[in-house]
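Supplementary Methods. Inverse-folding protocol.

Structures were first reduced to a discrete structure-token string of length 232. This string, shown here, constituted the complete conditioning input.
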């Protein structure tokens, strides 16, 4: 079965579809719960007070979550001058990036048709819309999770590609300062090392590269240091 569109144009069509499906009615509804009401307030307080590294809410320290999501919301507030719209833009960005990453992985690992199917299944999933149309950290976390997975798989299955590996590790670091579980893609290394040691096909064995592997940890810590280092 051939694709109804050329592989060259498939990413553009998928990106347009993702923006249409995930961005429909963007900014028209008001925040629906405590979390969606809280984050724009913290971001606005950052803009007004200049206290970027220690988030505040109603002049009190807000210790519940790391600040990266609030930084993103504050950036979009500055760009759009629309706090309600800005609240939903990080998740929309995450959805667009995730769609393209899934397509590209499917295309590289199998063929463009599989890439399109993977992206469409992602956009047809209820959980995708439940998370990526909400103004909460989980949608923004998806950005760093998918970049972490993409970078690692480009290296482990299609590599060696150390640059992509370090990008994936840095993305996990940013995921940690978005919401602590941003490190989860690193768990892909467990089945990878087992498969490489057993000589399975489909994975790229890279023996004798211990120093390069540890540089991935350095990349992750460098991303985390964007927030933690100024606090020291």
């Amino acid at each position: 079965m051939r694709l109804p569109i050329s592989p060259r144009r498939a990413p553009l069509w998928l990106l347009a579809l993702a923006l249409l499906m995930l961005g429909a009615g963007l900014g028209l509804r008001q925040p629906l719960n405590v979390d969606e009401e809280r984050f724009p307030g913290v971001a606005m307080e950052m803009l007004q007070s200049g206290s970027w590294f220690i988030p505040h809410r109603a002049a009190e320290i807000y210790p519940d979550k790391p600040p990266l999501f609030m930084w993103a919301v504050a950036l979009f507030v500055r760009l759009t001058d629309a706090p309600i719209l800005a609240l939903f833009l990080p998740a929309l960005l995450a959805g667009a990036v995730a769609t393209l990453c899934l397509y590209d992985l499917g295309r590289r690992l199998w063929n463009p048709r599989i890439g399109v199917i993977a992206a469409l299944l992602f956009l047809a999933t209820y959980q995708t819309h439940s998370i990526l149309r909400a103004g909460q950290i989980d949608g923004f976390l998806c950005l760093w999770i998918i970049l972490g997975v993409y970078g690692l798989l480009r290296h482990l299955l299609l590599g060696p590609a150390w640059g992509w590996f370090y990008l994936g590790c840095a993305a996990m670091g940013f995921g940690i300062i978005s919401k602590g579980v941003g490190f989860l893609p690193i768990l892909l290394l467990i089945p990878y090392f087992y498969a490489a040691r057993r000589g399975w096909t489909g994975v790229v064995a890279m023996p004798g590269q211990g120093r390069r592997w540890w540089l991935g940890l350095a990349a992750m810590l460098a991303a985390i240091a964007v927030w933690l280092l100024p606090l020291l």
